[in-house]
């Protein structure tokens, strides 16, 4: 997963087998674990969790629970993540390192903050209760249902009764009560089946036998008279879809709306959309399909989703109107570990920038000092040179041997001055390059405070660092 959503490091140490009955489960557990890690690298976290669980069932080792917990965090499923991390702490006990236990305990607090509790009361008792289509037990439920913050559909069903549904909005660490009352149905109504419509596109008309009965999204399956029915889906700007389904009394039949955008979108229905993610490389989807910036969209409501490895999912619903372009700015929030790594990298860049600039200044100062010292030497050479010229042209006896020795010494001094001049220039140039490089690194490098405001909001995801040590 992050640039992978996940940076996985695997340390797999299997103790020597004491017998065939021990070795075979170990080998199979390792195969499932390796397969899980390959799926993690591909971003297929749901399938990876299945493989992690198979490995754990074969060889129950607490470290696998850590990987499962991280995968659930990355998927934005705090309830399952809390369960996995809690079992990790219980089963790991004192075997886990203090650093890892502290990491897990910290993540537990973050995930628990994203969970609310719903107390579900149902009349009459004995009804099956489901949340978002998944069965959670039979009424009366012994304890509140833990749910991730956000919108959820709670439904109760019982033979001979109309199902009851409630849409709830869960707040992290909040508590609320939902009451569902199921009404007995007539014999004729019991001949109904339930039609569940799956559709990534909102505001699609759902027709049964030519009559419009609903629009997507449908919060719960819809009761429909049992038998063969013609179900059709339509929305302006989309190719309509129709299919025949057979509903059985008391059963649930699922259908997909199957609508697709008209290409090109008719001008009277065409609208524009501009999505500007705060991070480069982000993936933008409109109604579950990859967005192409130059492509017009049908007017009406749309679901916009923006994702990027290492960042939390950004979602929004937007209403588009014909001939108008809507400009959306999607501010992505980094996950905790991505932010930590980013800030560490940015700080290292700042240190290198300061070190480069400081080295450049130091070399520049040193070059200036050498230049001034060498300039004094040049004055000495110049004075001696003038004196030698004057001595040669003086009248009277002249000790030419002594003058030649003095001239040779003065020439050696000039050569040394030239050498130091070259070194001084090199020091100055190098100092200038270091100073410029440091300035460029400081101006163009990552800002360690970039995510100071946005960090920690919204559904999180986590880096999975796989470790298995049987």
Structure, explained:
With 470 residues, this protein is of the alpha+beta class. The chain has five domains: 20-112, Serine Threonine Protein Phosphatase 5, Tetratricopeptide repeat (Alpha Horseshoe), CATH 1.25.40; 119-185, Carboxypeptidase-like, regulatory domain (Immunoglobulin-like, Sandwich); 186-261, Immunoglobulin-like; 267-330, Immunoglobulin-like, CATH 2.60.40.1120; 337-390 and 399-444. It is 39% helix and 27% strand. The chain is built from seven helices and 23 strands. It has helices at 20-42, 45-58, 62-74, 78-92, 98-112, 336-392, 400-444; strands at residues 115-123, 128-131, 134-138, 145-148, 150-157, 164-170, 175-181, 192-198, 205-208, 211-215, 222-225, 227-234, 238-239, 241-247, 252-256, 260-261, 270-277, 283-286, 289-290, 297-298, 300-307, 314-320, 325-330. The strands form seven sheets. It has a four-stranded antiparallel sheet with strand order 3-2-5-6, with no helix packed on it.
